[in-house]
């Protein structure tokens, strides 16, 4: 049997060569040179169009190249009953927490105000609130969300978190389910989205959510593009429902050059770069899962394809 790869080019040839070196006994093929589709039993794919996997009738294991897996599972032709794994490690979560803290500090300390004042040569003094006076909320308490919430609480923010089921995180006020969502939003001045994308979380960054936050709130989204309703975000920024936002993931990527989001005041765009797994982590985790799969052993970071994460 054989492994089919279709990888992103962020690491150039180093990624595929690292995989080959880690799995010297495997038949590793690079798309589009798949050969006989019936020989493919493992796929290691970055992005793929819907229906891509249909020819591979003997596929048994699908591996993502990062933590996000929603774009695979949203394919109506995604094979039923195969195992799926993803790439997750502590460093991945730490990089995400760094991103969250960077932009939380930026909005808390109103860096945009001082940059604008400097451009006008204006000595525009402004009194700043202490971290403990600012109520921050994290949506999602997976590996990345939990660490981000812990870091925010650790530097003194009044931190809350919301997730599907109730968790306990030291120093963090936790809410859960639809019954806790409104109360969570009502106390959240800076809303941080680190949710997985599922049918229940799709479009969650919308007018209904923004309206339940305190007026003039901030949104920081490093989740998935499908969480965002772009028109609602633009409207909320334009009418003052939100005072600012930082968005890292969009429904269409790369963000089209003619998108109004590029030029919207107080909207900060980053190119889906909030966190990336290291080359070593990607190679080592995938190779280990291949070895475990061949041996019939428990897989690392296996996805519940029904729950969507």
From TrEMBL:
Transmembrane intervals: none
InterPro entries attached to this UniProt entry: 3-OH-isobutyrate_DH-rel_CS, D-isomer_DH_NAD-bd, NAD(P)-bd_dom_sf
Gene3D superfamilies: NAD(P)-binding Rossmann-like Domain
Record Pfam families: 2-Hacid_dh_C
Domain D-isomer specific 2-hydroxyacid dehydrogenase NAD-binding: 106-274
Keyword NAD annotated: yes
GO MF annotation terms: NAD binding; oxidoreductase activity
Keywords associated with the record: NAD, Oxidoreductase
SUPFAM superfamilies for this protein: Formate/glycerate dehydrogenase catalytic domain-like, NAD(P)-binding Rossmann-fold domains
Protein name: Glyoxylate/hydroxypyruvate reductase A
Organism: Bosea spartocytisi
Lineage of producing organism: Bacteria, Pseudomonadati, Pseudomonadota, Alphaproteobacteria, Hyphomicrobiales
